[in-house]
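Entry 14. Ran structure prediction on the chain below.
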Amino acid sequence: MSITVEYPDPEPNGLAAMLGGLIEGNVAAHPELVKLLSRPATYAIVAPDVDVAVSIRLASGRVTVRNGVVGRPDVQIETDSDSLIGLSSVPLKFGFPDAMTKEGRDVNRKLFRRELKVRGLLRHPGKLARLNKLLSVT
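Output, structure tokens:
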């Protein structure tokens, strides 16, 4: 089963295009990931240092990627652009950064220092884990 990645904005920003392409490529390479789209979820990813924000909505077989933060996302990730690039390689355990790995400890350190803000983490750890699996570079 294939997925459709939609970009409703006439000119998606670079982050939107990158994330949408990454999800599309990962699902094409690993078709079993399409099951992660079976339940709706909304996300926002914000990099204030470069004034860029993206909203991602997962629905049955579809992914919608928009510029900016749209509505009230289930999970909102906010950090600097350099940290965003590395987050997709961070292993999660039960939806939280795995403290048994160096990468997980680095993310936890940023969380405690408030260099990385994840709104909705405690309410929706499973949704965060789904996004991480869709975005993880394979």
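Residues 14-29 form the longest helix (16 residues). Will compare against last week's run tomorrow.
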